[in-house]
Amino acid sequence: MKQVVELLRTHAIQPSAQRVAVANYVLVTKEHPTAEQVFHAVTATFPTLSRATVYNTLHLFVKKGLLKQFALTEGVSVFDPHVEPHHHFVDDETGAIVDIPWDRIRVEGADDLPGIDVRDFQVVIRGKRHRRRTTNKAT
Amino acid sequence: MKQVVELLRTHAIQPSAQRVAVANYVLVTKEHPTAEQVFHAVTATFPTLSRATVYNTLHLFVKKGLLKQFALTEGVSVFDPHVEPHHHFVDDETGAIVDIPWDRIRVEGADDLPGIDVRDFQVVIRGKRHRRRTTNKAT
DNA sequence: AGCGACATTTGGAATAAGTCCAAAGTTGGA
DNA sequence: TCCAACTTTGGACTTATTCCAAATGTCGCT
Ligand SMILES: [Mn+2]
Ligand SMILES: [Mn+2]
Ligand SMILES: [Zn+2]
Ligand SMILES: [Zn+2]
């Protein structure tokens, strides 16, 4: 897609073929992929891509503000193209990470702690999804 | 300390010398040590302790409810003897993790999300500490 | 077009955190 | 005392990530 090239340019990122390929997956996904998941997804269409480039690119995107990186599960980082404030639900059973809109949860007092310069906060919720609803269309 | 032996017994944990040594550090600390930090702290007084035993013991304590384990920083898990609900502040500059009492922050709506069985949640705050306030001493 | 400076990519080696394993040591109760 | 179960251990292994130095690509300039 052409928009991605523009997006990279406006963020002062040279749109190499590799970066565009990574961007077209990781800046669009609704999931919260690990570096390895990005690697697998993108090598499907760009088989020569190397793991080192995936890491380079993800870190560059984080530095340029196109992605957030965080650790919710032990052992791996995940990347999130949804960079505006929001909360997260982590499914204990599957490990899936789901966005919770910012204004669905009211938080008071988190940015007014003595001795602390708060840069950012979020609620992290753990649990499991309810039993899947019987065959009917969602939303 | 003798209390630790009792505590382990009441949690159905055989109080071996190694487990007692680990417990006397990790169940008492106000910090949020990594397994490696536990290993270093405890080998100071119990030099023959092995890394494998540290991991075994930490995981056992987690399973028995004496510790919580979580990932706030990429790359490592930390262990927390403060098992009641509370929030965490992570200092961006030092990586230090600080407890925030549960009732210092009001959170509404986190346990009432459609399709989700919430087991547990917490607010994770990131930022930096204010410049050190040296109340009396000049530096 | 050709050239050089610089940026980018690459495969593989190196690290770091954690897990696995099979042998050795320890223990509590018959 | 003896033994079966439990516990510990060093080291090999795995996994996620970083590092590295060589190869490749890009861009402006002539
Ligand atoms: Mn308890
Ligand atoms: Mn790791
Ligand atoms: Zn998200
Ligand atoms: Zn804590």
Offer a concise description of the structure.
The structure is a homodimer of 139-residue chains. The first copy, chain A, has 139 residues and is α+β, with helices and mostly antiparallel strands. Helices cover 29% and strands 27% of the residues of chain A.
Structure description:
- Two copies of one chain form a homodimer.
- Chain A has about 140 residues and is α+β, with helices and mostly antiparallel strands.
- The first copy, chain A, contains four helices and six strands.
- Chains A and B meet through strand 1, strand 5 and strand 6 of A and strand 1, strand 5 and strand 6 of B.
- Strand 5 (about 105-110) of chain A pairs antiparallel with strand 5 (about 105-110) of chain B.
- The complex binds manganese (II) ion (MN) (2 copies) and zinc ion (2 copies).
- The structure holds a DNA duplex (30 and 30 nucleotides).
Q: CATH topology of the largest domain in chain A, what is it called?
A: Arc Repressor Mutant, subunit A
What's the CATH architecture name of the largest domain in chain A? Orthogonal Bundle
- Find the biggest chain interface: A-B, 36 and 38 residues
Integer count of domains of chain A: 2
Shape of chain A: globular
What percent of the residues of chain A sit in helical stretches (DSSP H or I)?
25-40%
Termini Cα gap of chain A: 29 Å
Q: Based on the structure, what is the oligomeric state of the protein chains?
A: homodimer
Number of helices of chain A: 4
SSE string of chain A, helices as H and strands as E: HHHHEEEEEE
| Total number of beta strands of chain A | 6
Low-pLDDT residue intervals, each spanning 5 or more residues of chain A: 135-139
> Can you tell me the CATH superfamily of the largest domain in chain A?
Winged helix-like DNA-binding domain superfamily/Winged helix DNA-binding domain
**Main CATH class of the largest domain in chain A:** Mainly Alpha
Biggest sheet details of chain A: 3 strands, mixed
Radius of gyration of chain A: 17 Å
Strand content of chain A: 25-35%
Ligand list: manganese (II) ion, zinc ion
Structural class of chain A: alpha+beta
Mean of residue pLDDT of chain A? 93
Strand order of the largest sheet of chain A: 4-3-6
